[in-house]
């Protein structure tokens, strides 16, 4: 059986792994922005519908299409919370 110490070690190594992964993610994002492509689908990221989406691209490296998908999913998650009476929050 696991005790708290083991669990904390797990959390620690998970944190280190996450940091490494995050660095990779940022590196890929920076490279994608340099080439003006999407860091998710690798498609062209030249056209954005508004200034906000353009700024979002500089933060997340996602093209307009991928941004739209992410936001639709967020909307669906919100609806799910409502359907479950906020239990998932
Ligand atoms: Zn994309």
Can you give a write-up of this model?
- This protein has 89 residues and is mainly alpha-helical.
- 70% of the residues lie in helices and 0% in strands.
- The chain has three helices and no strands.
- Residues 38, 40-41, 43, 62-63, 65-66 line the site of zinc ion (ZN).
- Zinc ion (ZN) binds at residues 38, 40-41, 43, 62-63, 65-66.
Descriptive tags:
binds zinc ion, 3 helices, mainly alpha, 89 residues
Number of helices: 3
Strand content: under 5%
The protein's oligomeric status is single chain
Whole-number tally of structural domains? 1
Question: Rough shape?
Answer: flat
What is the arithmetic mean of pLDDT? 89
Helix and strand composition category: mainly alpha
Kindly state the number of beta strands: 0
**Span of the ends, CA to CA:** 29 Å
Instruction: Enumerate the spans where pLDDT stays under 50 for 5 or more consecutive residues.
Output: none
